[in-house]
Structures are given as structure tokens and as C-alpha cells.
Amino acid sequence: MSKRTQVSAVVNGDPVDFLTDPGATLLDALRDELGLTGSKEGCGSGDCGACSVILDGRLVCSCLVLAVEAEGRRVETIEGMAEGGRLHILQQKFLEHAALQCGFCTPGILVAAKALLEVNPDPTESETRYWLAGNLCRCTGYDKIIRAVMDAAAELRQVRV
Amino acid sequence: MAQLDFIAPVSPEQAAAALLAGGAGARPLSGGTDLLVQLRSGRLPPGLIVDLKRIPEAIGIRQEAGGFVIGAATPGIALGEHAALTAAWPGVIEAANLIGSTQVQGRATMAGNLCNASPAADSVPALVAARATCLIVGPAGRRTAPVESIAVAPGRTSLAPGEFVLEIHLPARSARSADAYLRSIPRTEMDIAVVGVGVNLTLDADGVITDARVALGAVGPTVIVADAAAEALIGSKLDDAALARLDTAARAAATPISDKRGTADYRTKIAGVLARRAATIAYARAEKTA
Ligand SMILES: Cc1cc2nc3c(=O)[nH]c(=O)nc-3n(C[C@H](O)[C@H](O)[C@H](O)COP(=O)(O)OP(=O)(O)OC[C@H]3O[C@@H](n4cnc5c(N)ncnc54)[C@H](O)[C@@H]3O)c2cc1C
Ligand code: FES
Ligand code: FES
């Protein structure tokens, strides 16, 4: 009965059309239909955050969104974070602080951290840790990640004034 | 994932008709943070998914008749952003905002938490303590039901075929009233409640409790309305004797099982402790309201 459905959405500012199975997740569609493989599947059950994207302004796990739900919606992924060839400050700070090792969690954490700084430009360390509690990292032990986000927040605040 | 069908109706009546036509395999979709996990793990066979998020009444928070109407598909994060709602019902909002991570909050709803019918659902004891009601839409029209009548057993609800929750209603607040919700989990974040307690209090001008409601989660197959625990508080100023009576009554009301998250003895004891603490928080909040 199920047939492939046409979905029109805006991904990283660009209008896109793709065909998808009604049972496919947004993560599947991003990776397999649109070739945006930055978002990762760590668990497929909402626990690890490696698939984090911003859907109509809200941080979500794309593994728990059906691709067909994206019809007419705006999706922001890690691929939209650098502008042209220029890395986002968060990305630069992750490199400077060595806040990644294998890198599998990194796209999801960067997207989640960007969402945090959009609503809270001056987060405390504890607010940052709670906001990122849904992003698991098996390599770094989190400290460097938190330091990179705090440093990026401080720098972004200076850029703004 | 397995093959399934999907529709996103724009009116409640269309949704009810689709759910009815879809039969036993048809499911409403709000945030999908339970439903997608269940579908993907194969625990739930694929069927028809009816997305409620395109129905205008199912989205957003409206103030009505002194109370609040919350669209069933409104995510947790939007509840916490609503200043008037958070001021009137701090316990309901803290319970809803405990659900999962930031990412889960971007999607998860109280209606989904309720209709998933997990005994450990965090927002449900707080909604029950608040005397919240559901506006239910179905093939036969609309009806209103108290929140505590929805879950009937783990994973099972009283909703008839084709019925779904369109709105959750929080009643008008009387003066000097407040609520609180506390849960106990083994970790600091991202875990399932071992015990959850919602307490809702109203005080008179002298600080005497005139109305109370206590609801216990995760210590029975569905949320327990602990009437004796509420009565233990009425007429008191939440002194030590009242707190001791509350503790005893909450423990007596709890009917937990033992599992890997905690033994029945432990859960019973914690139900008493959390009831005391939640009542203390609710009392302090109520004193601060005008
Ligand atoms: C990582 C993670 C952490 C979590 N942490 C917690 C936690 O701390 N505490 C907690 O309580 N839960 C937790 N959950 C479970 C889940 O997020 C909550 O139960 C959530 O509130 C479900 O809401 P939803 O809108 O996503 O529901 P959905 O997944 O959309 O639906 C859940 C069920 O209810 C039905 N349904 C949905 N909406 C309606 C409606 N309006 N009318 C009738 N039926 C409906 C669906 O068909 C389905 O059976 C967690 C889940 C994940 C993935
Ligand atoms: S893959 Fe989505 S949360 Fe882990
Ligand atoms: S860097 Fe390897 S999981 Fe985070």
C-alpha cells in the first residue's frame, strides 16, 4: 500500500524536493536522498543526539522525525553551519580546544550548541551541560566540548557588541 | 523502517475519521518520541500514522476562562517559554520539562506522555494533581474527561476507536495556589522516574491549606490519586505533624512493583519523601503568589 511520497522542504536555506517512503525518518532522507551525511545515526532512539538538526527553529533528533513530516518546514543541518568556506566560531573553537576525537558526535553537538547560543548567548557551564545532556560522546569526556562552547559563546558576545 | 502510511489532516474531524478508518493499526502522532521509537524497534507493527501537528487547535497555548488550553501537539519547550502558564502551573511545567533532552523537548508533548500510558510518565502526576482535563475528539463528536481517566493500564488507554486528545485544559487558578512535581531517577538527566509525585495546594490568607491534591507516579500501573495524603494536609499550615501524616498516607497509597530501577520497599519509602518535599515546595510557591 505504501508508496513513495514527494516532500518539499527548505534545507539550509535551499528549497529541496525529494521522494521518500512514509516510514523513512528525516535522518534517512537527509543522508540517503539528499546526500547530507553530516548528521549521524548513533542509536536511532533519541538517546545520543548524533542526528540533531533544527526543525522550524527547534532542536530535534532527526531519527525521531518522519521525513514526510518535513513537508513545508525549514531544516538546518551541520552542512549549513559554515558560511562559504568560513567555519562557524563554534567549529573553530572545537578545533582549537581539541573538542573531538573520532568526531561521530561532533556534528550533532555543534548543531545543538548553535541552538543553545541562539536562545542563550551567555549560558553558565551548568546550563550548557544540561542543554547538551542529550548529546553523548564516548571519546572526549565532555570537558573540552564544554570549554569550546563556553569560549565560542564569549567570542560571539564580543562580536555582537 | 517498516512500511507504513501517513496522513496529516488539518481538522480534528478528519483526523478522527482517518483514525477510525485505519482500525487497530492507526495511531495519532504528536511529537513521535515514543511512537517512532516503538515503530523503529518493531515493538509496534506499522499501520497508519495520523499526524496531529497540522491541526490548528492542536498547536499552541491559549488563555480561556481564567485557565489554559494547551494544544495536544504543543512541544514541552514551548510550554516552558510561556511565562503566564509557567507562573500559574509551575509544577505542571517542571514535570513536562523533565521529559528527556533538549532535542526530546523540541517534540515531546504532554498528550503523548499521557496517551503512551507509561506508569512512569513524568507530566501525568502533575496534570492529575492540577485537575487537568482532556478535550477528546472522536467519530461521535467531542467530550471532556479528567486526565486520570485516560490511562487504564500500562500502554492502554480508555480512548475509543477513532478518538484522540485534541487539547489539555488547566483550570482557572484561585488565589494563593501553587503546585510542584518531583521525581527520583538514578541519574541527573535522561532517565525514567522511579517515583514521581505531584502536589497542588491552595492556602487561605493565614496560610492554612484549604485544598490539596496529591498524585503518585511509577508506584502503580497508573497514576494514583492519593486522597488520604491530600486530606492529611487540609486544615494545616504544613507543620511537621502534617508532613508526617502526608508521608504515611503517601506510602500507604503506593502499590509499586520491584524492578531493576528500584525495589518496592525503596519506591514506597521514596514516595513518602518526595510527597513531603513536593508539598513543601508547592506551599512556599503558594505563599509567594498574590
Ligand atoms: C531520549 C528520550 C528520553 C525520554 N525521557 C522521558 C522522561 O524523562 N520522562 C517521560 O515521562 N518520558 C520520557 N520519554 C518518553 C517520551 O518522550 C514522552 O512520553 C513524551 O511525552 C511522548 O510525547 P510525544 O508527543 O512524543 O508522543 P508520541 O510519540 O507522538 O505518542 C505517544 C503515544 O501516544 C499516542 N498519542 C500521541 N498523541 C496523542 C493524542 N493527542 N491523542 C491520543 N493519542 C495520542 C501515540 O499514538 C502513541 O501511542 C523519553 C523519550 C526519549 C526518546
Ligand atoms: S541517532 Fe538520533 S538520537 Fe541517536
Ligand atoms: S568524539 Fe568520538 S563520540 Fe564524541
Helix/strand order of chain B: EHEHEEEHHHHHHEEEEEEEEEHHH
Instruction: State the strand order across the main sheet of chain A.
Output: 2-1-5-3-4
Low-confidence stretches of chain B are none
> Helical amount among residues of chain A, as a percent range?
25-40%
Overview of this structure, please?
- The complex is a heterodimer of chains A (161) and B (290).
- Chain A is an alpha+beta fold and 161 residues long.
- Chain A has 5 helices and 5 strands; from the N terminus they run ββαβββαααα.
- Chain A has 2 domains: 5-80, Beta-grasp domain (Ubiquitin-like (UB roll)); 89-160, [2Fe-2S]-binding domain (DNA polymerase, domain 1, Orthogonal Bundle), CATH 1.10.150.120.
- Chain A has helices spanning 26-33, 89-96, 106-119, 125-131, 143-160; strands at 5-11, 14-20, 52-55, 58-61, 74-76.
- Chain A has a 5-stranded mixed beta sheet, sandwiched between helices.
- The radius of gyration of chain A is 16 Å and the shape is globular.
- Chain B has 290 residues and is of the alpha+beta class.
- Chain B has 3 domains: 5-51, 2-Layer Sandwich (Uridine Diphospho-n-acetylenolpyruvylglucosamine Reductase, domain 2); 58-170, Uridine Diphospho-n-acetylenolpyruvylglucosamine Reductase, domain 3; 177-288, Enolase-like, domain 1 (2-Layer Sandwich).
- A 5-stranded antiparallel beta sheet of chain B has the order 4-5-10-6-7. Chain B has a 4-stranded antiparallel beta sheet with strand order 11-12-13-14, sandwiched between helices.
- Chain B is globular, with a radius of gyration of 19 Å.
- Chain A binds chain B through residues 1-2, 5, 21-25, 28, 44-47, 49, 52, 55, 58-61, 63-66, 68-69, 71, 112, 115-116, 130-135, and chain B through 1-6, 8, 29, 31-33, 36-37, 39-41, 46, 49, 51, 53, 75, 77, 100-104, 106-107, 189-190.
- Bound molecules: flavin-adenine dinucleotide and FE2/S2 (inorganic) cluster (2 copies).
- Flavin-adenine dinucleotide is lined by residues 27-35, 37, 52, 72, 98-101, 104, 107-109, 111-113, 115-116, 121-122, 159, 164-165, 190 of chain B.
